[in-house]
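Submission checklist for the structure archive. All mandatory fields must be present; incomplete records are returned to the submitter.

[x] Identifier: G-protein coupled receptors family 1 profile domain-containing protein
[x] Organism: Desmophyllum pertusum
[x] Residue count: 286
[x] Sequence attached
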Amino acid sequence: MNWYWILGWIPSTLAILGNGFVIYLICTRRRLKTVPNRFVLALAVADFGVGACFFPAHFMCNFFLSNCNSSIAGDIAVLMIYSSTANLCAMTIDRYVAIVRPLTYTALMTRRCADYLIAFSWFVPLAAYFAPAFCTSLHGCSINLKVTVIIWTSMFEFIPCVLLLLVTVKIISTARKHCRQLVKLDSQLRYNKPDHKGQRTVSSARVIGTVVAIFIACYALEVYSSLCYFTKLCEATEDLNRAVFFLVVTNSAANPIAYALFKRDIKKELRNTFRLKKKSIYSSKV
């Protein structure tokens, strides 16, 4: 048993526990049931699926089940991974509209529009990847694997990495511009009203910037591995593939940490939750 089978449980467990707790918070706290958090919830569900489906199924198939159809298990796991990528793109679109077009955000991003965008983010991986892959695994149809893998890799790896990077740079630059304007306005208000408290800037840009940075960092090796597979300029070894699998799951495990550290409403609910638990523990001891 090498390092992969030992360390692989760490990000998988963190992805399950972290995203499960995020799902629990958003579903049970009325204050968190907002349009932006619908995208966070969808991404958390996909990341939870990555943690629950990918490594555990891979581990069981290799060590405990002699007649395991690893192809179907792999299809489900990759569906969760691609759904995570698609839902991250949807969340980035939401934050782009909120920060770059703040005056029209409420009119554009209604609950119905958010639900449509989330449904589309689940439908695309399901139709473009899972349906043909699952059919092939059951030997019900055949596909040109080389061409199809190029399409899948372009749709869910290369293009998202490039677009997410460009959009996030625009989001961060716009957010910084807004912050400078707010600082200037606050200084003017304090001059006329000394007891004025400065306006708090939104945490959206920091959250999306962190999540996208984690995504690109974790998927950089996957892009390199795909280039090795397509171009033969390098060798896609088994150790390289396992490192890619480990980083992909790590990406899903890291997202809840980004929410807890930088997303203000979730951070506040976490504090309230642990504060209540401490009070209940203290009162039970007394």
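[x] Structure attached
Curator remark: The chain has ten helices and no strands. Residues 99 and 171 are 7 Å apart (CA to CA).
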